[in-house]
Amino acid sequence: MKPGLSTTAMALALIALGAPAFADIEAAKKFLDTEIGELSSLSRAEQEAEMQWYIDAAKPYAGMEIKVVSETITTHEYESKVLAPAFTAITGIKITHDLIGEGDVVEKLQTQMQSGENIYDAYVNDSDLIGTHWRYKQARSLTEWMEGAGKDATSPTLDLKDYIGTDFTTAPDGQLYQLPDQQFANLYWFRYDWFNDAKTQADFKEKYGYDLGVPLNWSAYEDIAEFFTGRDMSYMGGPATGVYGNMDYGKKDPSLGWRYTDAWFSMAGGGDKGTPNGLPVDEWGIRVDENSRPVGSCVARGGATNDAAAVYAVTKAIEWLQKYTPPEAMGMTFGEAGPVPAQGNVAQQMFWYTTFTADMVKPGTPVMNEDGTPKWRMAPSPHGAYWSEGTKVGYQDVGSWTLMKSTPDDRAAAAWLYAQFVGSKTVDVKKSHVGLTFVRQSSINHDSFTKRAPELGGLVEFYRSPARIAWSPTGTNVPDYPKLAQLWWQNIGDAMSGAKSPQEALDALCAEQEKVMERLERAGVQGDIGPKLNEPKDPQEWLDAEGSPVAKLENEDPAPETISYDELIKSWQ
Exposure string (b/e) for 9-31, b if CB count within 10 Å is 16 or more? Predict the structure, then answer.
């Protein structure tokens, strides 16, 4: 072995030459020495025992070539480039872990569902599809799999209770359909250094009459956005020009839909109260009956996709994008907009995914101090005028391993071994440090994150706090995520471009969602848990009833409220 050549690299070289891969404890020990070290929630002896189980369990599948797929984020890049080759070296199962766009992942999954062709042996797809998987019955119930055909390939140290996201991947039938692999929230992001500066604070209070701080509502967010846009921040070492008080994106692209389905309406105050998602109306505005059957999306059927809270949400987003955001943002996608705050000219962003934390903490960027601490912090997003206590406050993305029934059992078992390996207690603390997308409580509580917390701008504090459970993915009201999600970006895009007013765009969106649900109802493909639409009636009857949907408020701009970040953190602790 050449000096400095890792076991993983050597295994890959041998595989390329047609030689058999390693499948023994020595390969595992090398991996533990060179990659894991002390970054594990298990002792070294426990790590070796866990790796020995994988070696033994993989023997029936040694030599198989397995293909899995996920979206391209830092966590999955680490899995693809480091953990997949390591798993191959340790077990002899050759893993190809493809990285593609999130929309492409959904498209591949949809194609496999429609054709029955085994395109991939496992998918990391969002738990947002839980309603789809539960109703179509084309994804394996992992509860049944682990007790049946997949029993011998299920790790005795899997410890499902240690996972923080399984509530989101469990359907109303009580079955677990997906295993969380990475999890991140959408939170408020802001320049802590700017907000805490005495001159900045004095100037803000003189202009608005209250203290600059973390905004608790959209009224305060809007004031702060206005205050910083165009402000000369050179007295703090920031830009003299080109400063903006908001960051967002507006390109007519699939990711524009995520901006809204990922709980933007509920942050405005749309949907009903309750966790993990409001019932009977969720943050998509889809109403279900007592049997979880979708019954409407438009207000006339009891839905809320086009009610006053939804219109307010879209109207504010467009207004802020036009007034307080870099002009180029209108043509950006999710992936292009995410890293922009790290460039140092944005004061705040209400809807910022924590998956970008890994890029935001890179040394030498304008938003990092020389001592390795950030100039920024993250906090709960402010809520809109229609919001009240108990309404959903934010979204968590839970990218989760999904096994399709169209995948042969042996291939599913080999892929299942890999899915467990990359989230195993041996590996997960290190993976969490790389991608900062926590899925295990034991990793969140690891001492290494206590030490690193000051460098991560509130991420660790958030995930250790009881506040975390209020952030949740799309729930089970959505009967067919692939079909319905594509309607969002197309219709919201019409509002963004000015082709339609927000009300017109949302009227069209809810009507199109109901057409899809009508087709599902007629086809009967989802059985007695599929859509069964209400008859339309006078919308006012629904607006007069308690809960969602809601009528337009006389005042959509209540008194602004802020809180000191340091006070907020104390409340978490």
Answer: ebbbeebeeeeebbbeeebbbbb
CB 188 within 8 A of CB 350: yes
Same domain? 148 vs 207: no
Domain at 346, CATH number: 3.40.190.10
- Is residue 153 within 8 A of residue 413, CB to CB? The reply is yes
Residue range of the domain that includes 421: 7-177+397-440
Q: Which two tokens stand for residue 487?
A: 């309607």
User: Given the DSSP bridges, would you call strands 179-190 and 377-379 parallel, antiparallel or unpaired?
Assistant: antiparallel
Tell me whether residue 445 is in a domain: no
Please check whether residue 93 is in contact with residue 128, taking contact to mean a CB–CB distance below 8 angstroms: no
Rounded Cα–Cα distance for residues 538 and 302 (Å): 10
CA 183 from centroid of its chain's CA atoms: 6
Closest CA to 296 of 306, 286, 305: 286
- HSE (side-chain half, CA atoms, 13 Å) at 490: 11
The number of domains in the chain is 2
What lies within 8 Å, CB to CB, of 423 at 6+ separation is 163, 179, 180, 181, 431, 439, 440
Residues 6+ apart with CB under 8 A from 522: none
**Contact (Cβ atoms closer than 8 angstroms) between residue 336 and residue 253:** no
Q: Tell me how far CA of residue 500 lies from CA of 146, 503, 547, in angstroms.
A: 49, 8, 28
In a shared domain, residues 390 and 403:
no
Q: Look at residue 19 and tell me whether its pLDDT is greater than 90.
A: no
What residues pair up with 349 in beta bridges, in sequence order?
A: 189
Measured from the Cβ of residue 101, the count of other Cβ atoms closer than 10 Å reads 15
In whole angstroms, give the CA distance from residue 282 to residue 261: 10
Work out the percent of the chain whose per-residue pLDDT is above 70: 96
Is residue 460 in some structural domain? no
Please give the sequence-ordered ranges of beta strands (E in DSSP) within 370-467, or none if there are none: 377-379, 396-402
Q: Which value, in Å, is the radius of gyration of the alpha carbons in the chain?
A: 24
Considering the domain architecture, whether residues 133 and 229 belong to the same structural domain is answered as: no
∠113-114-117 over CA atoms, to 5°? 70
Q: Which phi and psi (to 5°) does residue 175 adopt?
A: -90, 140
**pLDDT tens-digit series, residues 342-395:** 999 999 999 898 988 888 898 999 999 999 999 999 999 999 999 999 999 899
98 membership: H or E segment, kind and range: strand 94-100
| 218 and 244 both lie in a single domain | yes
* Same domain (yes/no): 413, 501: no
